[in-house]
């Protein structure tokens, strides 16, 4: 069955035509799904009952079941665990900032990129998410909190550029003026660095922010942390970033997870400066969140500060990521892993 929540308004009009319905119905249905955030066809009370019936015969209506939610006592950050129709589990995070509410969504169930410090990739990729399933994470959280979401970051489980077409469709629906109408400038997509897709994204000339997970200042070190570094060199990445800026005018964000004794020395900071000095960019330093399956440790407080100072001295814009929801934490992907382990235990 066709996934109705992943259709553009134009496509929905065509579908209505095929069903012998008036095309204005498409606008009504679109509004119910993407603005009023209806959870079912039954809620669409300005549609005739017969049409609602027809819709449920013809289309799949994506929903996300809330399985678990943890709220931080420190800063109100919430971690949501959702389940889709096929039993797939994904994590999403809600963060409250002074400038608005931000949601971090997953783009895939699991991940096949294999970064060695990341919990989301330990069991590989189960499947990619549909556009409607990415949207539904934002919608379900909006319903649950009763508050508007102003920022969306695609930084949860999965590699968004490994799910490229669905990602683009998601972005288009999320920012549609007839939907939640989230500004493109308030959307960030984070990638481990799939160079051809970064370039393809640049061609679309969207006003979203591209974040590149760099995590190392030379290819040798990067290959130890991220298998994708075997496919694309840092110099290819830098060229793709420059191209993204050239096409979109959007400043690149570099994410750099600091791992104690691995990539956090002053020499690393110096080498990193050399790489990115020419680019219009911002560096986000993330103290690594240790996962129990690996032996990585966080950098010392003063090493983090020294790293930051070095970049600043070199004229680079840098922030240390505030650790939100430290008390509910466990690294990204761990809530999902715990739930899966629990379910497997019950199934035994
Ligand atoms: N696949 C995308 C988006 C998901 S990961 C990407 O690689 O960018 C979001 C960010 O969190 C990435 O920068 C990733 O490298 C980082 N990350 C993953 N696990 C981490 C951990 N345990 N500690 C710190 N950062 C982590």
Report what the structure shows.
This protein is α/β, with parallel strands linked by helices and 348 residues long. Helices cover 36% and strands 20% of the residues. It has 11 helices and 14 strands. It has helices spanning 9-18, 24-34, 49-58, 131-145, 164-174, 195-204, 219-225, 234-248, 266-276, 301-313, 334-347, and strands spanning 2-3, 59-60, 65-71, 78-83, 89-97, 100-105, 108-110, 125-128, 151-154, 187-191, 209-213, 252-258, 281-287, 318-320. The strands form 3 sheets. It has a 10-stranded mixed sheet with strand order 3-4-5-6-9-10-11-12-13-14. α6 (195-204) packs parallel to α8 (234-248). The longest helix is centred in the middle third of the chain and has 15 residues, at 131-145. It is globular, with a radius of gyration of 21 Å. The mean pLDDT is 95. S-adenosyl-L-homocysteine (SAH) binds at residues 113, 115, 117-118, 155, 159, 190-192, 213, 255, 257, 286, 288-289, 291, 331-332.
């Amino acid at each position: 069955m066709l996934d109705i929540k992943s259709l553009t308004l134009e496509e929905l009009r065509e579908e209505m035509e095929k069903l012998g319905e008036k095309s204005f119905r498409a606008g009504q249905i679109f509004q119910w799904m993407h603005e009023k955030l209806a959870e079912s066809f039954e809620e669409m009370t300005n549609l005739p009952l017969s049409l609602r019936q027809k819709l449920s015969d013809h289309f799949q209506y994506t929903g996300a079941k809330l399985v678990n939610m943890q709220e931080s006592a420190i800063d109100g950050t919430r971690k949501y665990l959702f389940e889709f129709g096929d039993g797939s589990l994904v994590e999403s995070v809600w963060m409250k900032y002074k400038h608005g509410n931000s949601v971090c969504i997953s783009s895939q169930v699991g991940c096949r990129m294999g970064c060695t410090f990341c919990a989301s990739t330990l069991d590989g990729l189960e499947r990619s998410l549909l556009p409607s399933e990415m949207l539904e994470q934002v919608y379900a959280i909006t319903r649950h909190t009763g508050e508007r979401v102003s920022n969306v970051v695609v930084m949860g489980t999965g590699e968004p550029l490994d799910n490229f077409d669905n990602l683009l469709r998601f972005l288009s629906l999320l920012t549609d003026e007839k939907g939640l109408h989230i500004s493109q400038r308030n959307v960030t997509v984070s990638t481990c660095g799939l160079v051809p897709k970064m370039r393809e994204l640049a061609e679309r000339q969207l006003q979203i922010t591209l974040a590149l997970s760099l995590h190392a200042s030379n290819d040798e070190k990067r290959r130890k942390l991220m298998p994708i570094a075997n496919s694309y060199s840092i110099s290819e990445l830098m060229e793709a970033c420059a191209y993204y800026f050239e096409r979109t005018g959007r400043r690149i964000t570099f994410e750099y997870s600091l791992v104690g004794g691995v990539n956090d020395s002053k020499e690393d900071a110096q080498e990193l400066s050399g790489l990115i000095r020419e680019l219009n960019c911002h560096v986000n330093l993330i103290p690594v969140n240790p996962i129990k399956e690996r032996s990585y440790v966080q950098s010392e407080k003063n090493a983090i500060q020294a790293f930051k100072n070095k970049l600043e001295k070199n004229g680079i814009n840098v922030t240390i990521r505030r650790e939100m929801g430290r008390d509910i934490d466990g690294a990204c992907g761990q809530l999902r892993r715990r739930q899966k382990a629990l379910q497997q235990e019950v199934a035994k």
